[in-house]
Amino acid sequence: WEELRGTGISLEDVRAQLDRRDERDRGRATAPLAVAEGACVLDTSDLTLEQVVALLLSLVRAALERRGGVG
Question: 3-class DSSP state for residue 54?
């Protein structure tokens, strides 16, 4: 998004373009866009970088604990 500042393209336009692309990709016949089984879907839209890192670290730690630690 930062590289588009000053080009006349709004953040809303970028989001709309991404939404259209994702919808098209989900609906394609070959290799449709889909969330992988067991994946964590994170909406980081309203989080700071520090909050995202903390969330990811907590998810990794929890996954490692479920698997018995680092192997």
Answer: helix
